[in-house]
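We include this case.
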Amino acid sequence: MASLKALKGRISSVKSTQKITKAMKMVAAAKLRRAQAAAEAGRPYAERLQAVMASLASKVSVGPEGPKLLTGTGKVDTHLLIVCTSDRGLAGAFNSNIVRAARKKADELQRQGKTVYFYLVGRKGRAVIARLFPKQIVHQYDTSAIKYVSFADAQAIAEEVIERYNSGGFDVAHLFYARFQSALVQEPTEQQIIPVPMPETASVSSTSGADAVVEYEPGEEEILTDLLPRNIAVQIFRAMLENAASEQGSRMTAMDNATRNAGDMINRLSIQYNRTRQAAITTELVEIISGAEAL
């Protein structure tokens, strides 16, 4: 049985931890409001631009000299998985869920005989992926100095990815992130961003007018040259915004659970402390009474 001093020390330690988790929960809740607003504001533009690109991919006939970002390389042998995670922990299963989804996709592709590489955004996914795929990480983009996500950060990542694609580094790129739904739910999401995925026939005909004649001004090649890299940057920017909101929501929930668990542990330790103290007092009284009777 633990001594009274040890129990008192454990109670004090758990109370200190509870203060920290409660403070972290409040900070995460404050940051969540801004991050959630940014993620929700970025969705309509990103989704509409992706729909426009998918519509163009189904309508535009481009020759061998056309943009590979739209038509692809003609192969699907090498895949790049862009895995977006955070730089900080204590966020529940937020990072592990994203990494698990990427691992599942990588295993599936490798079973099909494909070559898989990883482009990591954030630090928390590196440990697991480096252990399972030690020679397949081609780059890690450091986001530790980023306080608030900006489009310039996403554009820098997009430029690096496009450069690797144009140099023949891969044939298909998949983006992994956590889509924010609520503070309790963050859904791991996979999205193909290179080449532009072909849309489903039903959705194209109902929303984009697949049979419509498309006319371009100033010109098809000029428009696509500008829009295709922008679309990749926008999709990465959206993923980073969704991740920022998901991270704070997951951290707020995790710290709330940790605070509650600390309170339960304090109650259990307090009961144990009181029982141990009562047992010690009873023992002392018995010893005093026995000594008095012996006299």
Summary: The chain has a mean pLDDT of 84.
